Amino acid sequence: MYETWFTNHTGNARLDNLEDIRNTFLQGGWYRANLIPNKLTLLSFNSLQMNSENEQNKILEENAELDWLEAQLTNADFGEKFILQMHIYDTTSFWKNKAYANWI
Q: Range of 87's domain?
């Protein structure tokens, strides 16, 4: 899927962090795309693995992805804006129990 989205779509070639995107995308399906470096960033969060209905729910992957997300937000430049993209919106029990406890 990485090849389809980031190699075959020529518009993505202008992203300044393709190697970082590749590494995290292949690790668990999440990535950061610097749309306007240090000003506007897309964080694509693979929330499918956190769905309580997902029988292949993996705690280590969840924690790795949450650690990654926390690092992105914590290390952001002052005034940097984020667009958070995910599959499952925030009404699932995962978000209420884990993510909200840290960031809201």
A: 2-103
